[in-house]
Design goal:
This protein has 2 domains: about 180 residues, no CATH class; about 70 residues, no CATH class. About 25% of the residues lie in helices and about 30% in strands. The protein is built from 3 helices and 15 strands. Strand 8 and strand 9 form a beta hairpin. It is elongated and about 120 Å long.
Amino acid sequence: MKTNSCAHDAIKRYNTTGFSMVEMTISVLITTLLMSAVFPFIIQAQKKLQGTQVEAESNQGARGAMELLTQEIGQAGYNPNFSTNRMCALPVTANADPQCVAINGISEIGIGDWLSVDTGVNNEFVQVTGTTATGACSLANQIQGVFIMNHTSPATTFPFRVASYKLPYPTGILTGAGTSSDHVLEFYGDVNDDGVINYVVYSLQPTTTPSTTISINGQNYILYDLMRSITPVTFGAGPKNNAASPVVRNVLYQDISSTNPTGPTGKSLFAFPNTILVGIVPNQTSVVGTVVISMCVAVNPQNIETNQVEWRVMSTQIRPLNLSAAVQVNQAGGYKFLPLTPTGLPMQ
């Protein structure tokens, strides 16, 4: 009897430690109900996280582009002086016609630059009308210009110096037909501060082919890429722009072929509210005093969380200091020494 009682107790204990099918079914149902309530919050949280990441990447790219634009526009018109004088080892006889003179290096010297030649009583300022690099001179490291002073012995000690006396280009930001507009910005100067004059173009190109159109408040906008190309200036006719690459994706803008297109804020991408006419020889020249940028960048191009079109606005106002300096030189009577726009600009 004791043995049977023990077996009965063991069976009883075994049965009470498990779950019945009904209990299991109820547990599964409860778990399913709980998970069905939680899943939407998890999915929404994931979308929010993804949307935040996409927005951060979009903002970061646009901010980087704005910083680059600010730096480069600020350098527009910059015509760097070289710190180490060049030297001429051969005598030069005065001549009313341009002549080519050899020096020990012509890098950083462009057409229209003024150079301080020689010292003492024979010192003069000579404007460069050509170089070996532009094809105006046939021998290596030659500059072309009109020398009105004799640089000969005994008044001149050889080699004599050729010093930099260069002023900024007043037309560092190109304006007029076929150049800068509401959606194109063209300028040149030593934008990298490396002694090389570069020609820079920012322009809009459709992000996709055919272009993607988005409606905002009943107005259609196209998704564009803001493209940038940079090309060294050769001071000669014929060169073409280097290939452009995108710096900002999904810029919202009306069809650029329409009249006075704008972004969703009602403002153009590029604006030039402060343009000054100065009497630089031989004609009046338009000098840009301020560049205003208003860029609307779409998010992905729509918010992942809400499926609504969203955009961020990046705006800035830039004053090209070199161009302002050129205006001051002009107004002080130094227009003769301001260099003209390099040959071949704008490039094709």
